[in-house]
Amino acid sequence: MQITVYAASSGQVPETYRQAAATLGKIMAQRGHTLVNGAGRTGLMAATADAAMAEGGKTIGVIPQFMITQQWQHTGMTELIVTDDMHQRKERMAAMGDACIACPGGVGTLEELLEVITWKQLGLYLKPIVILNTDAYFSPLLQQLHRCVEGNFMRPQHLDCWKVAATPEEAVRLCEETPLWDASVRRFAAL
User: Fold this and answer.
1) Strand 79-83 versus strand 34-37 pairing type
2) Using one digit for the tens of pLDDT, what is the confidence trace for 14-52?
3) What is the chain's mean pLDDT, rounded?
């Protein structure tokens, strides 16, 4: 499989998150999966890629040109794909993965995760979405999504758009085992 991983670019995050990201990259490589990420040279993006490559894994980074101009790209990725802008980057990363995992991150990571959940809710993205909830990082967001259902902003069945993993091992397993989403869900997109 090719697994798209959304993750922080910040190098200032707690070690717990960096370790989990590195473990994720290591497990993906050991299981023969290719990592697709945003090609950042720092933070959890780099930790995942570095660990995957240390295990002999393949890594594909997708990054917009303006970030290369700023020299924000990881220079050791197996393959680097350059896009014109952030929109193309997100579309390409989602299309390339057979599943996606969201690691802790800032607004960019949250935006990527929520966009792919929206696409799945609309039947535009059918692949597994896994939220790696390291140290309960995503718990407030998950509570908010449940609140969306309670307030009738989402249907209860849309809570099945994603799976939540407590560990990197569980995240990879959920990518491997979760079936594709039924495109007919599109008829339930509106309340």
Assistant:
1) unpaired
2) 999 999 999 999 999 999 999 999 999 999 999 999 999
3) 95
pTM over 0.90: yes
Amino acid at 47: A
Dig out the tokens for 181 from the structure.
């989403």
Chain segment 60-72, per-residue pLDDT in tens: 999 999 999 999 9
For residue 190, the one-letter residue type is A
Torsions phi, psi for 61 (to 5 deg) = -105, 140
Burial class (CB in 10 A: 0-12, 13-18, 19+), 25: buried
Give the residue from 83, 84, 38, 33 showing the smallest Cα distance to 58. 33
62-to-38, 112, 155, 191 alpha-carbon distances in Å:
5, 13, 33, 35
**Three-state secondary structure string covering the chain:** CEEEEECCCCCCCCHHHHHHHHHHHHHHHHCCCEEEECCECCHHHHHHHHHHHHCCCCEEEEEEHHHHHCCCECCCCCEEEEECCHHHHHHHHHHHCCEEEECCCCHHHHHHHHHHHHHHHCCCCCCCEEEECHHHCCHHHHHHHHHHHHCCCCCHHHHHHCEEECCHHHHHHHHHHCCCCCHHHHHHCCC
